[in-house]
Design goal:
Elements: H1 2-21, E1 28-33, E2 39-57, E3 63-79, E4 86-94, E5 97-105, E6 115-120, E7 125-131, E8 138-144, E9 149-155, E10 161-166, E11 175-181, E12 184-191
Antiparallel strand pairs: 1-2, 2-3, 2-4, 4-5, 6-7, 7-10, 8-9, 8-11, 11-12
Length: 192
Amino acid sequence: MKKNILTVLALVTGMVAFAQNADKSTALTTVENTFRPAVYNLKYMNTEAGKVKVIVSDEAGKVVLVDDLYGKSFVRPYNFNDVPAGNYTLSVIDKSGEQTLAVNHNYASTEAVQTVSVKPVENNRYQLTLIGNKAENVYVNIYDRSNELIHTDIIAEKGSFSRTYDLSKVNANAYIFEVSVADKVVKNVIVK
């Protein structure tokens, strides 16, 4: 009888510990786009160092990557260049629980466009050249270093073209040219 009571007590204690760990993690986690196409930074910050497991899954729930990490806080880049466009889930599991983050990965390969380049011309003017465009519309978004949208352009031309952008009235030390074709980002170019 004494053995049964001890067994039940141990079982209840284990269930309480498991229930406490099943709660949502108290760590601060975010996932953000980077200046590199198809690369997303996972930012993790907790009050104590410990083991952290990151599981990346696709829309169908298939596990794409499992990453075992250790630390109190870190920034970990995840490169999605080799996976198809779609919605992905990052499950971040630590000793206090689990958090789920979503990544909408819509980076296209450069099949629709062969070459994209941005070159400084003069007086804060930049020339965008696109070679081999097979799509109807090309969308150009220009951001400053703090990721503020400066200019948007829609170019309705098939084939190769070149366009010059005058940014002399914008006070920024660097620019990000984001070129999209068919709602897919094909190139991010940082110019200074």
